[in-house]
Design goal:
binds pyridoxal-5'-phosphate; binds iron/sulfur cluster; alpha/beta; two-stranded antiparallel ribbon; single chain
């Protein structure tokens, strides 16, 4: 194993030609990759290319599909349009127009993220904060809105910016602290991105250390959502500030908080290298725990056995499986999506093959506009085949754990195409949700004024 690779080398769109492992591709195939990478942001790095991808298994290797754009991720028509423009060496302006047009059809802000979850503080909105469920606030530090590599199924990239300067981060962290201080119902702060672990230790400290003070006794749990264990485990082992990161984790734990690293793993292959195992060991030695989550994605982890092996491996390494998500309705969704009934079959098939220590995982879960909805099962009631659903988290907490039913539909891939069962017109929460939408929109337009 190449334990000596420690320095991050990032490859972006313009480096597709120079990645040595891509020499096996024809000029035509490279052009195809470059065309898709115009629309779906591309970034990978030396660890992913040299240690995760099996180059003897292309294009089926799951990690290859996870970070390298494939022609099928765009519709044929869109793909051909971009490939043609690229071949003609068209002007940047024309290319940008074509790309923007395609991107706008790919729904970059799913499920009301932009409009309905942004909290207000005094007169303005709080930048970089989402507060959907009472006890947990999401924080998006500006300097952490990028990742060590990009997943091809991700469409968070409209927020992939880089505003790393000290003044901005300080002001921003001040804003969210003020908000949290006034909201005593909040017990959990979840730092997310992009990937907050792309930040330097001092930047991370700017957001987290204040929460250890006396004004934040209501904050019990600090979570950091990250893909760094998969894409750059050296973050915790050999990066120049790796030890500083671990010291910060220790400090949080000694202050009496529960620190949870919410690690995004899509495949057991990401758990095999010596360096990821060392990173997990080092994080756990600080007293932090690691919980794992992943979407179920076609072409990458759409097999029961992949989940069985992944969960077992995670538990063996001391990680706690947490969520299996249904892939969101964004990005190259036709390529990645899986019908809800298949998602349930895969979950049900996998969960029965692992011990109770892996059964902490909940799924398949749709994180949708009204809340986090779990597909509990498929049943036949009064001769009607139905999905049994319930909320794990809801905009109105009282909706949680109340079973509800949708008509079975073998094609449906998301809540928005499900119909209530038993001839009903609406789900039990629909009217209340409509009202919330109207009210929130009113508030939002007032804030803009
Ligand atoms: C998933 C999620 C959370 C956290 O929910 P838990 O059930 O506490 O893990 C918080 N806010 C938003 C917007 C979420 O989607
Ligand atoms: S790690 Fe998360 S935010 Fe980053 S590209 Fe992948 S899915 Fe998107």
């Amino acid at each position: 194993m190449k334990e000596n690779i420690q320095k991050l080398r990032t490859y972006s769109y313009k480096d597709i030609d120079i990645i040595p492992q891509l020499k096996q591709f024809s000029a035509q195939e490279i052009l195809a990759m470059k065309s898709v990478a115009q629309v779906i942001p591309f970034r990978t790095n030396n660890y992913v290319v040299e240690q995760l991808i099996d180059w003897d298994n292309i294009p089926d290797d799951p990690i290859f599909r996870l970070t390298f754009p494939q022609p099928e991720m765009l519709s044929r028509e869109n793909f051909e349009r971009i490939a043609k423009l690229l071949e003609e060496n068209t002007s940047q302006a024309v290319m940008k127009q074509a790309v923007d047009k395609i991107r706008s059809t790919l729904n970059p802000h799913p499920d009301g993220q932009k409009n309905y979850n942004v909290p207000k503080f005094h007169s303005g909105t709080v930048r970089g904060v989402q507060h959907k469920y009472p006890e947990t606030v999401l924080v998006f530090p500006s300097a952490g809105q990028t990742c060590h590599a990009y997943c091809t199924f991700c469409f968070r990239w409209p927020q992939f910016i880089n505003l790393g300067d000290l003044k901005f981060a300080t002001r921003e962290s001040g804003d969210f602290q003020n908000y949290i201080q006034e909201h005593k119902e909040i017990t959990d702060v979840l730092l997310t991105g992009g990937d907050p672990m792309t930040m330097k230790a001092w930047q991370l400290a700017l957001y987290l250390e204040p929460l250890l003070g006396p004004d934040f006794e209501h904050i019990q749990n600090i979570r950091i959502g990250t893909k760094s264990l998969s894409y750059w485990p050296y973050r915790y082992v050999t990066d120049p500030d790796a030890d500083e990161i671990l010291a910060l984790f220790e400090k949080i734990v000694s202050a009496g908080k529960h620190l949870a690293i919410m690690a995004h793993f899509n495949h057991w292959k990401e758990l095999e290298t010596p360096v990821v195992q060392e990173a997990i060991r080092r994080i756990r030695s600080t007293g932090a725990c690691i919980r794992t989550q992943s979407p179920l994605v076609n072409h990458i982890n759409n097999l029961e056995k992949v989940w069985v092996k992944m969960w077992k491996k995670q538990v063996k390494l001391g990680c706690i499986p947490y969520y299996m998500f249904v892939e969101r309705q964004t990005g190259a969704k036709n390529y990645f999506e899986i019908p809800i009934f298949r998602a349930w079959e895969i979950f049900q098939g996998a969960i029965q093959k692992v011990s109770g220590l892996s059964r902490t995982v909940r799924g398949p879960v749709m994180s949708a506009l009204p809340g986090k909805i779990i597909i509990d099962g498929i049943a036949e009631i009064n001769n009607e085949k139905v999905f049994v659903l319930s909320f794990l988290q809801a905009r109105n907490p009282d909706w949680c754990k109340r079973p509800f039913f949708a008509k079975f539909d073998p094609e449906s891939t998301w809540l928005t195409t499900l119909k209530p069962a038993f001839g009903k017109e609406k789900f039990f929460f629909d009217s209340a949700l409509e009202e919330m939408k109207i009210n929130k929109q009113l508030q939002l337009s007032q804030a803009i004024k």
